[in-house]
Structures are given as structure tokens and as C-alpha cells.
Amino acid sequence: MIRKVYHDFLLAKLKQDGVGWLARRARQYLLLHLSPLAGRALCGPVHGSLMVTRRCNCDCTMCDIPSKRRESAGTGGDELDTARLKEIIGEFARLGTPGLGFTGGEPLLRPDIYELLACSRHNGMITHLNTNGYFLDDTAARCIVDAGVESVNISLDGASPATHDRIRNCGGAFERATAAVERLHRLRRERGVPLRIKMVAVLSEANIDEAGDLAELSRELGADCIEFIPCQPLTGNGGDKATPDESFMKKVDRLVEYLLAMGRERGMVENSPAHLRLFRSSVAGVPSPVRCRAGYHSLLVDCHGDVFPCFPRMSWGRRAGNVRHGSLVDLWRSDGYQTHRDIASACRDCYLNCHLELNLLFDHKARGRFRRGSER
Asked: 97: closest CA among 47, 30, 36, 158?
């Protein structure tokens, strides 16, 4: 069984754009399979991400973006302006990237975010927005829908205000996030638009006892699904890794079985069965058993023009280049970028959802093995 989002978008695009779009994706899927064998990218990435800002109103316990921004204040240059970000969006489209996700920081802190979202849709890409929901009022909801956004993730890390607000270090964050989900759900019904709404929760010892309630809450609020991200020690090639205690690991095991059952019965869980069964390894910090192909299927550009094959390498400060002035297309196809692609391919230091799910998609043997739970 593949990840729910892939299934949903394949069906939606087939209805909207016909078999031509599906044929192009099939060709890209084949070329991505062959790229590691060829030792170069034979096509563009399927997963594009644009970090439009590192600014955020929250200071989450599991996120290092605000602290990294404080450390580098004044050294990374100003955020790229609207015109340059639009050019980069166009370059993602030129590479044949089918979908582009907008993230941060908190993307809604950029006044031009709706213009950028609309630019992505104008370039024919599936357009996705990640937000904490804090600023997603009625006006923002209408602007998101008017821009043609097809998918929105709203973060919710606790089923109670106390838990969520404590993890996010932001008072009132729970009330605003839940209201944002309800607001988008109501608006899409009024407008009759196929907007996909997903709640996202980062699991840790601080909130694992509320995970079941979170899954139920996502359904009650009108979300299409919920995705769980296991909090993991992204230390980067050999850093110290704390070992979780056994009581927490048992909670992880019980939660995985619950989510597997909920996914089968209600289809509310976004994570694939194979990914869920890797939660134990993820929180334990053991090397990933899945080959990483993020350098071929993913591409991230941040608000200063720095380019990375994946989100962990951004967190570790290991950029593959900069496109404040240069060409993203040329960088992707360069020998220099291939060096970073090769380094990323040897990495086993993360289980981050967006990359691991694609790695599983391109590794049939691993997907089948972990779907059956034989990794234990």
C-alpha cells in the first residue's frame, strides 16, 4: 500500500488532466529508478520545497529553525524578494517537478505568500502549504483557496491546549490551529473546491499519550487525514544519540498497531504501513535500513537561495549551492551537485517522512518487507 497522499493526488490529477499527466509521471518514476544506476539525474525531482522564510511566531521544542536563524542573523543576507522567488518557482517547473511545497518558518508571515502560491499553480504544479495555522483567519483562508492551493498541512502536536501550546512555546496556538482546520473545511464545502486538509503531529514523549485522541480530533475537525512524524535525533553523521527508555518504546509499539488499524478501518492515517513499522527504529536513532535517494527525488531551496538535497542536510548546514543569482536548473544538472547527491545517497541518519516515504516508494523490496513488519 502506498502513502495515502500519492494515491489521492494520482486520482485527482487523472480526473483533472487526463492520462497525459499520468504518463509523464510514469516516465519520471522510471527515470528516477534509473538515475542512481546512471550516476546522474535523468529527470527533475518529484518533491520540491521552497522555504520562503525562517521567521516563525512559535519556538517549538523539536525545531531548530528559530535558533539557527538567531545564530545566523545578519550573515545569510535578506530573504529573497518576490521576483526572485517567482523565478525559482518557474525553474522548479522547468525541471518537471510535479508538486511544490511552501514551508518555513511560518510561510504566512510573508505578505507575498499568496502571490507565490498562485505563481506555483500558474506554472502547473500541485501546490502545497505547510502552516502552524496561527495566522489562518477568514481572509487568509479565502486567499489560499483563491490562489488554487490543493493541499494544506496544519501542525497540531497535542490533543489539548496545554500540551500543544507547551510544545510550541506559543500561547493560544491550539485554539488557532483547530479553528484554522475547521475554517478551511467549511470554506472548501462552500466553494466546492477539492482542497486537501491534513493535520501533522510530531511525536515525542511529551505527547505520545495523546496521539490516539489527536487522530480522533483530526476527523472531528474535518481534516482528511493526519500524519505522524516520529521525533528523531537528527544529529548528522555520528553525533550523540540518546536512547529512549523502554516504557516509551512500548508506547510507540502500541501506537503503531493502533494507527495501522485506524488506517485500515477509516483511512485517516497518512503514513504508509511500511513507514509506521519503522517508527521504533526511528525514535531509537538506529541507522535507517532504507536506501536514501533524496538527492534524486527531492530538492529544497531556502529563503536565502541556499539549496539542499533534503531537510536534514539543511538542518546540518550542508548546502549544495546557492541560487540567489544563479540558475537552479543548471545547479541541479551540474557535476558539483552530483557530488552532494552521492553523499546524501550514503546517508542513513534520518527517517523524515517526506523523504523516507519516497525512498520506500522507490525501493519495492524494503516497502514489502517493512509493510509485513519483518524489520523487528
From this structure: 47
| H/E element, 160 | none
What is the DSSP-derived secondary structure letter of residue 267? -
Query: Tens of pLDDT along 75-93?
Result: 457 999 999 999 999 999 9
Q: Where are the beta strands (DSSP E) in 104-155?
A: 126-131, 151-155
Contact assessment for residue 167 and residue 210, using Cβ atoms and an 8 Å cutoff: no
Q: Please, what is the Cα angle at 48 between 47 and 50, to 5 degrees? A: 150
SS3 category, 288:
coil
Which residues have a Cβ under 8 Å from the Cβ of 66 and sit 6 or more positions away?
Answer: 54, 56, 58, 59, 60
- Decide: 309 and 299 in contact? Cβ < 8 Å: yes
Q: Is the pLDDT of residue 364 over 70?
A: no
DSSP 3-state of 315: helix
Residue 183 CA to residue 241 CA, distance in Å, equals 40
The pLDDT value recorded for residue 59 is: 92
- Residue identified by cell 497535542 is 158
Handedness of CA 114, 107, 203, 234 (dihedral sign): positive
- Cβ(149)–Cβ(121) below 8 Å: yes
pLDDT tens per residue across span 138-158: 999 999 999 999 999 999 999
Return the CATH superfamily for domain 44-373. Answer: Aldolase class I (3.20.20.70)
CA pair distance 241, 156, nearest whole angstrom: 26
DSSP letters spanning 329-355: HHHHTSHHHHHHHHHHHT------HHH
- Distance of alpha carbon 5 from alpha carbon 101, whole angstroms: 13
Domain ranges of the chain: 44-373
Give the global pTM.
Answer: 0.92
Nearest to 88 by CA among 312, 298, 325, 333: 325
